[in-house]
Amino acid sequence: MLSASPDVASFAVLRINPLADTRWDNRLADLPGATFFHGSAWARVLHDTYGFQPVYFVAEPLSAPVRAAAPLQCLSPASSPQKDSSKFRALLPVMEVDSWLTGRRGVSLPFTDECEPLGADARAIQGLVHAVLGHARARSWKYWECRGGRAQFGDVPASTSFWGHRLDLGHDESALFARVDASARRAIRKAGQSGLTVEFSHELDAARIFHGLLCRTRRRHGVPPQPWRFFQNIARHVLTRDQGWVVLARQGRVPVAGAVFFQFGRTVIYKFGASDHRFQHLRANNFVMWEAIKRFAQQGCDFVDLGRTSLDNEGLRRYKLGWGARERRVDYVRYDRRAHAFVTVSDGSAGWHNRIFRVLPVALARLVGAALYRHVA
To answer: What is the CB neighbour count within 10 angstroms for residue 356?
Structure first.
């Protein structure tokens, strides 16, 4: 379990809005393990689309004279002029979700597959967690959920668990292809022989085309699509900053499959995939993924994170393993403020609601998604 409030004599705990810190991404780059989801672009997409409020907690080292003084815990940058603000010692990002339908809570971070606390200093992480829980009490959150990094919280239960898959890009093209499952290699060859073309784009029109594919794909899966304004903000805050790509496969001029990737430094995240089921025989999804893998490897990226997979989704798990990815468990943790304890919850990704959304017209599913996502976070 978490220890009592730690000694913070050597660092300051601050609550910072990354949208107001112009140096955020530069400072973040010094923290090992930082991904796109920890960056300012993703925070701005969530804020501008859904109105979520960023309350990011950081530990920053204090100058030597202050380390000799009494312990200090600060909750605003202005209150600690003696801190060393050139770097982060630890980071725990949180968004406040305030919904009349589902209540007020903190999430680290909404619509993020994995966003664990960053920092090698266990005491600093403990200081951030205590600051978050204090903020949760002050803001009357129902709970606070952190998506990943369970090992840094001590002996607490996982609220929900998933599979995570990461593909190492530190090989040449032939070695990467050799690691791909034989059935996927056949699919890639078939797609190449069928005349498919693949394009990488930062343009809003590409995001619009992908969203159309996503709406049809989400209907098949029985879930509503994210609203179009979400992808407008991705185009505005991510694609235009060269931190992401829309990858589209076409048969002639017809878009048949696509994916959205995010990048921060040398790490890439596969976030969304979609396709037109009428062209499934072309194996365009495999072709999009392979062309992306080749491109990111050529650019010197270290790995592609393939996102989370529900423990009972064996088909998606096999698909990701088929690319030669390494598998690990991703454990979320949730602190229920009313129970004063870390709790377990069910994975609600599958259930009766899937049957309903599979029969809804696409236009109606889009309206439901536009209304619902800001409440579910």
So the answer is: 13
CATH code of residue 49: 3.40.630
pLDDT, one tens digit per residue, over 31-75 is 999 999 999 999 999 999 999 999 999 998 876 333 333 333 444
Q: Identify residue 128 by its one-letter amino acid code.
A: L
Distance (Å, whole) CA 224 – CA 121: 40
What is the value of pTM for the model shown?
A: 0.91
Which ranges of the chain have pLDDT less than 70? 1-9, 63-86
DSSP, res 115: -
Neighbours of 65 (CB within 10 A): 8
* Element containing residue 230 per DSSP (H, E): helix 228-237
What are the beta bridge partners of residue 11? 61
Range of the structural domain that residue 26 is part of: 11-156
Domain boundary among 115, 131, 156: 156
**Number of domains the chain is built from:** 2
Inside any domain, residue 51: yes
b/e map of 72-97 (b: 16 or more CB within 10 Å)?
A: bbbbebeebeebebeebbbbbbbbbb
pLDDT tens by residue, 275-307: 999 999 999 999 999 999 999 999 999 999 999
Residues 318 and 171 in one domain: yes
Residues 222 and 149 in one domain: no
> What sign does the CA torsion over 65, 67, 68, 71 have?
positive
Tell me how many degrees the CA angle 370-57-40 measures, rounded to the nearest 5: 50
Structure tokens given for 356: 């309903």
- My answer on whether 198 and 120 are in the same domain is no
Q: What's the mean per-residue pLDDT of the chain?
A: 90
Q: Give the strand pairing for 303-310 and 267-275.
A: parallel
**Residue 289 domain-assigned (yes or no):** yes
| Residues 224, 35, 57, 4, Cα dihedral to 10° | 100
Q: For residues 102-127, b (16+ Cβ closer than 10 Å) or e, as one string?
A: eeebbbbbbbbbbbbbbbeeebbbbb
